[in-house]
């Protein structure tokens, strides 16, 4: 019986969570109609929550974490795929209820997979990962609500993180004027190189929200939530749109209905985990077209499987810049 290597999360009788590199067999895999030889995964904010146990992300024990992977189909009984196809998986409960991407093999439902675009290597696709794919979903939402380059600027919160880095790169290439908000002043040069026209301190968005503020931006990509999202909404221009996709600062929204009923602002919720396959395909096609590969390389760091667990606390503390790729064979 074939074996594979994985980072395994386990919970002891005392309820404490621990991780180890384990050698598993195909009998340990979960049901699915496609088996994939995984080559790369990545570390997202949700992965940090799972790796540290800071939130109840993991709902099955033991669990292989990792909400993304890229690899090559080994076996398939699904008509969508055949052996040798290069594929990506983002979300669908991977690393939460279904064994995830921090392993050299995975068995999943074929409907969860999308083809790896020719524009990207597997490592580059994971440098994008759920964070970058979510950023593209946010850009699509802004476009669908009429927020185009000529209606700029667009604010990006949590700018030096994964979602923020990709959002800035894509928006800049499309011609938007981008305002980047960050709590890390030392990242100004990094953000400017990605395409930010202006970098503002996080503190401008973390005070007690006012019902309405001065109109500053036509659109927002927000991965932070809480007071940051409430303040961003209060300063969004008439008819603007705010794409909300994260909760790094909390799940609360201590704001007012004023932006919605007095300025006609739209709050667009972005879900990447259960997004329909058709929307995923569009997002990845657009990433292949609208994401500068040179900028992608500048935001990308690679680690081995054994180092993934240690990165959990750092990503939750906001210490990780850009995107971290996990080479599961290293």
Q: Overview of this structure, please?
A:
With 330 residues, the protein is an alpha/beta fold. The protein folds into two domains: 3-116 and 299-327, Medium-chain alcohol dehydrogenases, catalytic domain (Quinone Oxidoreductase, Chain A, domain 1, Alpha-Beta Complex); 130-269, NAD(P)-binding Rossmann-like Domain (Rossmann fold), CATH 3.40.50.720. Helix content is 27%, strand content 27%. Strands 3, 4, 5, 6, 7, 14 and 15 form a seven-stranded mixed beta sheet that branches. Helix 5 links the parallel strand 11 (217-222) and strand 12 (236-244). Helix 2 (122-144) packs across helix 3 and helix 2 (122-144) packs across helix 7 (277-290). The longest helix has 23 residues, at 122-144. The mean pLDDT is 96.
Radius of gyration, in angstroms, nearest whole number:
20 Å
CATH class of the largest domain: Alpha Beta
Which residue ranges are poorly predicted, with pLDDT under 50 across at least 5 consecutive positions? none
Structural class: alpha/beta
Tell the overall outline.
Answer: globular
Mean pLDDT: 96
CATH architecture of the largest domain: Alpha-Beta Complex
Question: CATH superfamily assignment of the largest domain?
Answer: Medium-chain alcohol dehydrogenases, catalytic domain
Number of strands: 15
Q: Approximately how much beta-strand content do the residues carry?
A: 25-35%
Structural domain count: 2
